[in-house]
Amino acid sequence: MPILGQNIDDWSIRAQLKTRIEAECGAVDEVLDYELCFYDVQHASVIGLDRSLFAAARLDNLLSCYVGIEALLAADGETTALMVCNDHEEVGSLSAVGANGPLLTRVLEQLEPDPARYRAMIEASFMISCDNAHGIHPNFSDRHDDNHGPLLNAGPVIKINSNQRYATNSLTAGYFRTLAQRCGVPVQSFVVRTDMGCGSTIGPITAGETGIKTLDVGVPTFAMHSIRELAGCADIDYLQTVLTHYFSRYQASDVQG
C-alpha cells in the first residue's frame, strides 16, 4: 500500500487532487473525475560491475514497445510492415484499444478492403508478439524447469506453451530461429514447469482474432511486475537486431508449413 503522508487534515482524494492541479496548472472549479495510478519516477539505470544490466520501472512491456519502434524505424522500408502497441494487456485485453478489441482488425481491413485480397494478405502475414520473459531469478531458481531457464544477456526467448497461453508453434519458432541465425543472435526457449500455471500474452488473443501465424518472444527479465525490473543490455540489442531484419526482409515464402 502506498504511503501518502502523515496527519493530513483532509484525506479526500478529490480535494488533494484539486490542490495539486491548482498548484501546477492554475485554479479549477471542480474535479469531475479522475484516473490515478502510482508509478516509479526514478530514471532508468545501467548497473552491474560490467554495466551489463538495465534496471527500470515498467520494462514489462515498455521495453518491447521501444525495441519494436526502434527496429521499425531502422528497417529499410522495402517490406510492408506494421507495428501495434496495445493497452490493457495486464487486465485481460478486452477493451476498445486492447488486443481483444477491434483496433488491429479494423486497421487491416482499411489497408485491404477487398475481402478476397484481405484473406490472402492475412495468409501471407506473420506476427511476432513481443512480451518480456521470466529469466532465472537467483532467489527463485526452483520456479524454472532445469532445461528451460532463460539467462540474462543470452538472447531473446521463444515462449512455448501447449495450452496456447503462448501462440508459438514449431513453424513460427523455426522461422524466428532462422532470422536469428542470419543475424548471429543467440536464442533461448522458455516452457513453464508442468506443475505451475502459465501466464499469457496478447499473442494468442491476436492470432485468434486475425488468423495470422504468430510467435511469442521476449527479453528475459528479473522481478517482472515489480516496481523495478531488471533486464540484460545485450538482449535489448539482440532483439532489436532480429526485429530490424524481420521488418526489412520478411517474405511469406520463408515460412513454409
Q: Show unreliable segments.
A: none
- Distance between the amino and carboxyl termini: 51 Å
Looking at the structure, the CATH topology of the largest domain is Aminopeptidase
Beta-strand share of residues: 5-15%
Quick one: overall form? globular
How many domains? The number is 2
**Relative helix content:** 25-40%
What is the H level of CATH, i.e. the homologous superfamily of the largest domain?
Zn peptidases
The CATH architecture assignment of the largest domain turns out to be 3-Layer(aba) Sandwich
Record field, number of beta strands: 9
Helix-strand category: alpha/beta
Q: Largest sheet, if any? A: 5 strands, mixed
- According to CATH, what is the class of the largest domain? Alpha Beta
Summed up, the helix count is 7
Give the H and E element order.
HEEHHHEEEHEHEEEH
Average residue pLDDT: 90
Evaluate the radius of gyration. Answer: 21 Å
- Spatial order of the strands in the main sheet? 1-2-9-8-4
Structure explained in plain terms:
The longest helix has 17 residues, at 233-249. With 257 residues, the protein is α/β, with parallel strands linked by helices. Helix 5 links the parallel strand 5 and strand 6 (188-191). The protein has two domains: 1-38, no CATH class; 45-254, 3-Layer(aba) Sandwich (Aminopeptidase), CATH 3.40.630.10. It has helices at 13-25, 59-74, 103-111, 115-123, 170-183, 202-210, 233-249; strands spanning 45-47, 53-56, 126-130, 133-134, 157-160, 188-191, 213-218, 220-222, 229-232. A five-stranded mixed beta sheet has the order 1-2-9-8-4. It has a four-stranded mixed beta sheet with strand order 3-7-5-6, with helices on both faces. It contains seven helices and nine strands; from the N terminus they run H-E-E-H-H-H-E-E-E-H-E-H-E-E-E-H.
